[in-house]
Specification:
It is built from five helices and 27 strands. The strands form seven sheets. Strands 1, 2, 3, 4 and 27 form a five-stranded mixed beta sheet that branches. A four-stranded antiparallel beta sheet has the order 5-6-9-10, with no helix packed on it. A four-stranded antiparallel beta sheet has the order 11-12-13-14, with no helix packed on it.
């Protein structure tokens, strides 16, 4: 896989879209589908979009949809991301909501600047910033991109703490919210942007969790609330629409909570939290000595969103999956794969990356049910983890119509690595990437993301 391609030359300084929305056909101007292409109610969407100056007039995004397990591709305009993407600065899809709203970070490099945070008398601080943090709400049905205003007092702390929730009242309204805990304190802040108000507001919340640094990897929307996922520990939840939000915490099952800093940087290769059949699911493949040390996959279900009790629903040993005739038929090696996602409507099916393939396994049956080569704009295969894809349950306005679908990206569409991003190979042929390549970034002082 390659890093994001450089966008075509473009100097438009208008980073938000004020033009008329494009038509649906312009938005989904994918290559013509082959006859066997068929719509799906959900897709696997690459988190790092392609950047192009050649979108239809007035469009800020384009979707090339393909049925799973192939990966669909998002393209954004150079108005959204006007710089050449690199392994350190790239557009990134933070969330794909069933309402059709997409939350995107477009953090650009900038000259070093001193940022002063003034919280009132005798309460101020400063830090050095080397980036220009920019966030967009994309409307997949209209093709428009709205740049969120910068918060007045303090910038967004970290992109992995930011989520989007469609309003229960409908009408296209939404709330973007960032959880801002103060480790060691009994309070935190929800920084909320309301599409109704058009501005950021702060809401104080009680924070009763132990003084442990968070390592969030994504924010989900479910049951009228946002859910901040820390794959080492558990999930924090709150309703950002509430006047006085109350934080809840759902720890992982007994024996599945990692020690602080344990697994940081690699947990999203071996763990995943997502929605399937309307419930939160926790998928774990981490081998723990006290749990037997046998390579296996387990699927846990949170039956009640107001509960903290997980139920073990499915489990299978990788040895049994590898021994199944369906796995042997794929030709894949008997190698521990990278966990990708859970099927959004069938919690028995879990997807994995292995090499350049993405395959689905019916866990209770130990049977491979899907297997295809996949292509992503980025990152390269050796850096793959499940934060680089999103399972997106699409609205009908986006998913309907064969004309919107294709059979996956051909090899000719796979981006090539810019000369400036090519890496030497270490002994054994493995590419060497610099520290922080394709990590999530931010100004947070107490979290480690990536």
């Amino acid at each position: 896989m390659a890093s994001p391609p450089p966008p075509d030359s473009h100097t438009d300084d208008d980073h938000s879209s004020a033009s008329a929305p494009p038509t649906s056909s312009a938005l989904l101007s994918s290559p013509q589908p082959r006859s066997e292409a068929s719509p799906s109610s959900w897709v696997i969407l690459g988190s790092i979009p392609r950047v192009s100056a050649d979108l239809p007039e007035g469009a800020d995004l384009d979707l090339a949809l393909t049925a799973p397990p192939r990966v669909s591709r998002l393209t954004v305009s150079t108005r959204v991301f006007p710089k050449t993407p690199t392994e350190h600065h790239f557009p990134f899809l933070l969330a794909a909501d069933p309402s059709g709203l997409l939350l995107l970070s477009a953090i650009l490099p900038s000259a070093p600047r001193r940022v002063v945070v003034d919280r009132g008398p005798d309460d101020y601080s400063f830090h050095w910033s080397f980036t220009d943090p920019r966030y967009f709400v994309l409307d997949a049905a209209s093709g428009t991109a709205l740049r969120l205003p910068d918060p007045a007092d303090e910038p967004v702390m970290h992109q992995a703490l930011l989520g989007i929730l469609a309003s229960p009242a409908g009408g296209g309204h939404y709330m973007v919210a960032e959880l801002r805990p103060i480790i060691g304190s009994d309070h935190a802040t929800l920084l909320c942007f309301s599409s109704d108000l058009g501005e950021w507001v702060e809401k104080d919340v009680r924070y009763t969790l132990p003084p442990r640094p968070l390592a969030p990897i994504c924010v989900l929307s479910h049951h009228g609330r946002l859910w901040w996922v820390d794959l080492s520990w558990g999930i924090i939840t709150a309703d950002p629409f509430a006047d006085n939000p109350v934080l809840g915490f759902v720890p992982f099952p007994e024996g599945r909570v990692l020690q602080c800093r344990e697994g940081w940087g690699v947990t999203d290769k071996f763990r995943y939290v997502g929605l399937s059949d309307g419930k939160l699911r926790f998928v774990d493949t981490i081998m723990r000595r006290r749990l037997g040390g046998i390579p296996k996959v387990t699927v846990w279900t949170l039956d009640d969103p107001d509960s903290t009790e997980w139920t073990l629903e499915h489990e299978a040993r990788f040895a049994d999956i590898w021994a199944h005739p369906s796995y042997k038929a794929t030709g894949l090696p008997k190698k521990r794969p990278v966990l990708a996602l859970i099927h959004p409507t069938n919690p028995a099916v879990v997807y994995f990356f292995l090499g350049d393939h993405l395959f689905g396994v019916d866990v209770p049956a130990c049977k491979v049910v899907d297997c295809e080569r996949y292509q992503l704009v980025a990152p390269p295969t050796e850096l793959i983890a499940n934060r680089f894809i999103r399972a997106w349950d699409m609205p009908r306005a986006v998913s309907s119509g064969l004309a919107n679908w294709m059979n996956g990206m051909s090899l000719s569409e796979t981006a090539t690595v810019p000369a400036s991003s090519s890496r030497p190979s270490a002994e054994g042929g493995t590419n060497v990437w610099p520290p922080g390549a394709y990590h999530l970034v931010g100004n947070t002082r107490q979290t480690f993301i990536g």
